[in-house]
Automatic annotation (TrEMBL):
GO terms for biological process: Mo-molybdopterin cofactor biosynthetic process. One of its GO terms (cellular component) is cytosol. Its cofactor is Mg(2+). This is Molybdopterin molybdenumtransferase. It is an enzyme of class 2 (transferase). The lineage of its organism: Bacteria, Bacillati, Actinomycetota, Actinomycetes, Micrococcales. It catalyses: adenylyl-molybdopterin + molybdate = Mo-molybdopterin + AMP + H(+). InterPro entries: MoaB/Mog-like_dom_sf, MoaB/Mog_dom, MoeA-like, MoeA_C_domain_IV, MoeA_C_domain_IV_sf, MoeA_linker/N, MoeA_linker/N_sf. Belongs to the MoeA family. Transmembrane segments: none annotated. SMART domains: MoCF_biosynth (SM00852). It holds the Pfam family MoeA_N.
Length: 404
């Protein structure tokens, strides 16, 4: 009985949870922390904004100085951004620039466009007057701490740090941040037929796309990737590579291989793992059905199938979500409902993952179901999820898509 996608994902989560618990944290300069997960809850060391300030270029006023019909007020000394202004005198309006500190005694800002005249008096002008409309207290004032108050929770442990989160930390005055240390992965592609790009393509051989595809996926997800070339179909050679990288305990946190897991005569990964704590399970998913999982030399092990699309789908369906769950980073893929632009069929009892392009809530298929179709994959921006109990869908039917 094949294992469900959810059950296999759960097994990958369990495998990584133990390993992640052994990893520590590290302090990094903000920009080096992009894509990492925050190690601990972080409280705001200062309030944002730190002081009440103006949201507009205009006049800071005491709202009670302006009756319903408006009033003519005397113009005081202007407040540029960055200055510490003197208190506002009653009956005065002071020119204030966006972001500048509100003078004590002021409680509202009237934008320059609503003033008559609607220009600031020239520098050095004396006895200038301005006519302003009535204004409710608080208008165009950004109160101190209205974004976040000092001591409040700024970001929770496990938050994935993207540009917005790092920008917040900078706004709070921080220059570095404590993040979870990344997992280091040994990625080994296998197969006698597979050659490194850049070499001549001898008849019967193909270039290794899995190595680049998966290393790129892993790096984007915040993993450190160790490579050791391509292993041929000799199990002893593959075992040597795996031992070299796992023997000294902490060298790698996870091993991922590609290929050699199905039912052929030369299944190098299956053969190498005979006698190890690794099982080969059929998962009710297409592509990416045959999966290896377990530990090698006490290090978590995942054996992805050899077809390139199967590799990407295995990564997106199992490893990436498990990393999100266990480490907090990367952020989970955005999942959207979309209408199918065309019909599709799906094998009975298997969760199918098709590739497609989503645009304005409609998703169209790119290429067929074949797991060798890397060109179609490269044109796609979404994975279309077809549940195991669905065998046919019509144009216009709603599906869930994961945005790549
Ligand atoms: N009799 C059966 N045959 C197959 C079954 C099955 O159930 N019964 N399952 C099929 C499915 S589904 C998949 S997926 C593949 C999985 O095969 P393996 O993991 O053993 O992978 P390989 O046989 O080594 O390769 C499969 C395919 O992918 C190409 N490949 C391999 N490595 C790379 C690489 N690094 N870069 C690019 N392409 C690669 C390889 O040449 C094969 O075409 O098994 C089916 N067969
Ligand atoms: O499961 Mo295979 O990965 O369909 O091609």
């Amino acid at each position: 009985m094949p294992r469900s996608v959810a059950a296999h994902r759960g097994a990958v989560v369990e495998l990584l949870t133990r390993q992640a618990a052994r990893k520590g944290t590290e302090e990094l300069p903000l920009l080096d922390a992009i894509g990492r997960a925050l190690a601990a809850d972080l409280r705001a060391p200062v309030s944002l904004p730190p002081f009440a300030n103006s949201q507009m270029d205009g006049f800071a006023v005491f709202s009670a100085d302006i009756p319903d019909g408006g009033a003519e007020l005397r113009v005081g000394a202007p407040v540029p951004a960055g200055a510490r202004p003197a208190a506002l005198e009653r009956g005065f309006a002071v020119p204030i620039m966006t972001g500048a500190m509100l003078p004590k005694g002021a409680d509202a800002v009237v934008p320059i466009e609503r003033a008559v005249p609607s220009v600031f008096p020239a520098a050095g002008a004396v006895d200038a007057l301005v006519r302003l409309p009535a204004t409710a207290p608080g208008t165009f004032v950004r109160d101190a701490g209205s974004d976040i108050a000092e001591g409040a929770l700024a970001l929770a442990a496990g938050t994935s740090l993207g540009p917005a989160q790092l920008g917040l930390l900078a706004a709070l005055g921080l220059t570095s941040v404590e993040v979870r240390s990344p997992l280091r992965v040994l990625l080994v592609t296998t197969g006698d037929e597979v050659v490194e790009p850049g070499n001549p393509l001898v008849t019967g051989k193909i270039y290794d796309s899995n190595g680049t595809l998966l290393e790129a996926s892993m790096r984007q997800a915040g993993l450190e990737v160790v490579r050791n070339g391509i292993s041929d179909d000799d199990p002893a050679g593959l075992l040597d590579v795996l031992r070299k990288h796992t023997d000294n305990g902490s060298a790698v946190d996870l091993v991922v291989t590609t290929g050699g897991v199905s039912k052929g005569a030369y299944e190098v990964v299956r053969q190498a793992m005979a006698g190890e704590d690794v099982e080969f399970v059929p998962v009710a998913m297409q592509p990416g059905g045959p999966q290896g999982i377990g530990t090698f030399n006490d290090v978590p092990f995942l054996g992805f199938p050899g077809n390139p699309v199967s590799c990407l789908v295995s990564f997106e369906m199992f490893l990436r979500p498990a990393l999100s769950e266990v480490l907090g980073a990367p952020r989970p893929r955005q999942m959207l409902p979309a209408r199918l632009a065309e019909p599709l069929t799906s094998p009975k009892g298997k969760h199918q993952v098709r590739r497609g392009i989503i645009e304005n809530g409609v998703v169209r298929l790119e290429g067929g179901a074949g797991s060798h179709l890397v060109h179609a994959l490269a044109r796609s921006n979404a994975l279309i999820q077809v549940p195991a109990d669905v065998t046919e869908l019509q144009a216009g039917d709603e599906v869930e898509v994961w945005v790549l």
